[in-house]
Design goal:
The protein has helices at residues 18-34, 50-62, 83-96, 110-119, 134-144, 172-181, 183-196, 203-210, 229-235, 247-252, 266-269, 284-297, 314-319, 328-334, and strands at residues 2-3, 6-7, 39-44, 75-80, 103-105, 123-127, 158-163, 218-224, 243-245, 263-265, 281-283, 301-303, 325-327, 339-344. It has two domains: 13-182 and 217-252, 3-Layer(aba) Sandwich (Rossmann fold); 259-344, no CATH class. It is built from 14 helices and 14 strands.
Length: 346
């Protein structure tokens, strides 16, 4: 807001919707009861206000204490797998608390992430792709401090909040995240297993195995609108999400549109006239007239460009055909998509 040539920023309060408040309260209560090292999945559809829910949860977890008045999590790491989502979440979470040093937005490189993790910043927001390079940056940071190139973190408790968990929970990048946050305990566990097997050279193998398993110092809080079977298996409870806000609820509350209202099947949209019920052929001219008449009477609607006939217009399709009759099977092959989606022309 600009007044008399000066920029002024006005802030307001945002009150959570019921499902947002319920989700945050239930998760926080479960963490306080169960402790560190468990996974929680929130199935929240589009229109649920997921960014705000993540922001409230991140701030609550960063200040959560146990019965002995000890902080449960040393750092809360908010993970996305796309730069656009990362910036959106950074701005949303940062707006909730402007205190210096509480929220660290990782918007440069992996060195910035390594510095934040080593310093134990309360809330860190970053992309998943930076983690494979953190170990090298930690080694450089350790050498600069004169600590002999140590490339692992001290063992701390972490709350990892994952946005779009259906695409972020698997692969080598996610494994590297657990390897970095596993800290010194993961390294010691690998060393002990290698010694038991009588081969120090096996330590890298056991370390790779250990970081693929469950880490007792990391709690995962996953958010997704479309959980896959693997997502439910990793983060769910007995194959079910911990909290759910469905698409039906979002539609009923008018936060998203019901796309099925503007959905017409291929068979219905391209229904053609037949000379007789048992006649498998349709005359070319009546068929073309029927299509033209339908499109003329429904000009208030436009067919999504994605589902248009693959050969272009009806006229071009007709010019390529030599018989004077079109069979219904031939017409169907001209339109490869099984269905079309239509929307009102604006």
């Amino acid at each position: 807001m600009v007044e008399d040539g000066k920029k002024e920023r006005k802030e307001g309060l945002i009150f959570p919707r019921y499902h947002q408040l319920e989700a945050v309260r239930q998760v926080v209560a479960a963490v306080a009861d169960e402790g560190v090292g468990f996974n929680y999945l929130a199935e929240h559809s589009a229109g649920s206000g997921k960014s705000n829910t993540i922001a409230w949860l991140a701030h609550r977890l960063s200040s959560l204490h146990n019965a002995r008045n000890e902080r449960l999590f040393d750092s809360v790491v908010v993970i996305t797998d796309r730069v656009v989502l990362d910036r959106q979440l950074q701005n949303t979470i940062y707006q909730f608390d402007h205190r210096q040093g509480v929220v660290h937005k990782i918007d440069e490189n992996s060195r910035q992430l390594a510095d934040a993790l080593a310093a134990g910043v309360p809330i860190i927001i970053t992309t998943l792709q930076k983690f494979p390079f953190v170990a090298k940056q930690l080694a450089k940071l350790s050498e600069e401090r004169g600590e002999g190139g140590k490339n692992w973190l001290p063992t701390r408790n972490y709350a990892v909040i994952i946005d779009e968990a259906h695409s972020s929970q698997s692969g080598e990048t996610a494994t590297e995240l657990k390897g970095v946050l596993g800290g010194g305990d993961l390294r010691r566990k690998a060393q002990e297993m290698a010694q038991e097997e009588g081969g120090v050279e096996l330590e890298p193998l056991f370390r790779a195995m250990a970081k693929r398993g469950r880490q007792p110092n990391i709690s995962f809080f996953a958010f997704t609108a479309t959980p896959k079977h693997k997502t439910l298996a990793i983060f769910g409870r007995n194959g079910e999400p911990f909290h759910r806000y469905t698409m039906r609820q979002a539609i009923e509350e008018d936060f998203i549109e019901d796309v099925l209202k503007s959905y017409v099947t291929y068979k219905t949209y391209y229904k053609l006239l037949k000379a007789a019920a048992d006649d498998p052929k349709v005359e070319r001219k009546p068929a073309a007239k029927a299509l033209a008449r339908f499109m003329r009477l429904h000009r208030a609607w436009r067919v999504s460009r994605r589902y248009r006939p693959c050969r272009g217009s009806i006229a071009r399709t007709r010019s390529k055909m030599t018989p004077s009759f079109w069979t219904l099977s031939t017409i169907r092959t001209r339109f490869r998509r099984p269905s079309v989606s239509i929307a009102r022309a604006r």
